[in-house]
Amino acid sequence: MPYLPWLGGPARYPGFLGPGPTTFTGFLIRWWEGERLLLLAYFVPCSIALLCALKAWVQWKELSKTWSYAFLLSWLFVPLVIGIVISLWKPVLVDRYFIICLPPLVLLAAVGLSQVRPSWISGVSLIVLLALSARADFRYYSHPHKEDWRGATAYVVSHALPKDGMLFYPGSARFEFDYYVRRLNPEAQTWQIVFPEPYDWTKKGTGAMRQPSDSLVRTIPKGYERVWLVLSHINWEQMRPIQTTLQANFPHTREQEFRGVLVVLYQQK
Questions:
Q1: Is the peptide bond between 198 and the residue preceding it cis, with omega within 30 degrees of 0?
Q2: From the CB of residue 161, how many other CB atoms can be counted at a distance below 10 Å?
Q3: Rounded to 5 degrees, what angle do the CA atoms 239, 241, 244 make?
Q4: Residue 97 has what pLDDT?
Q5: What is the mean pLDDT of each run of 10 residues along the chain (269 residues)?
């Protein structure tokens, strides 16, 4: 299964998503690690299982089978529905939080495959499903997409000086950084957050929390001799004005690249 990596460490795309069709669709795509063929391979047998459940409820003959279907469907959908409802107030649509939904999904697929006739088609379908799952696992481990926030945070914590300024782009990147600061050394923070500050993580993904205003960037050189710029999911076109302003006032720069994260230190001396 391509979900084994979820069992340890932050999610592949850590962070919170708010409600709405777009973010929920994105959550589902991440839930399947972009494996659309694997999604289809699960969709077909799960659809068969749903039809079997509907038939059992309509006929209401085998009570034990009816309750078994009800249990599996509740196990699969109740956590998702609860997560969506909670996200109306506090965004919690994070893929790793819904690992609990994976066992009923696999069991429903198994039920659906067991209903396929003739049996050789069921066997071939199972082999295809296993092959797609193995491919997804191989792609995950051979082409890791998980950002190295642990390494980036440890680097900043060990090199930052008191009264350094710190700027995150996008602003939501501060969530991952703060997470590892608390794990590595909660007392280490001697720097001053320039953006986003104050940080409202419930607005993650919104324009206001994504990038600092031009007026804010222009005021940075007046208050700091060193500024850290922590970058993730970089859009160079949007970054150019920020970099131009910082480079004009901080002639000395030092870059350190981590997987998916770029840390740039701007210094006046």
A1: yes
A2: 10
A3: 105
A4: 76
A5: 38 42 51 69 89 84 80 90 81 73 90 90 90 81 76 91 88 86 76 78 52 79 88 73 83 88 88
User: What is the C-alpha to C-alpha distance for residues 21 and 6, in angstroms, rounded to an integer?
Assistant: 24
C-alpha to C-alpha distances, 160 to 21, 171, 177, 261, 263, nearest whole angstrom: 40, 19, 14, 17, 12
Do 125 and 113 contact (CB within 8 A), yes or no?
yes
C-alpha pair distances (Å), 111 with each of 1, 40, 107, 114, 264:
17, 16, 6, 5, 53
Site of tokens 């209903």: 115
Token pair 């920020």: residue: 242
Largest CA distance in the chain: 81
Give the domain ranges of the chain: 4-142, 149-267
Pull the structure tokens for residue 123: 């066997």
Residue 217: per-residue pLDDT? 81
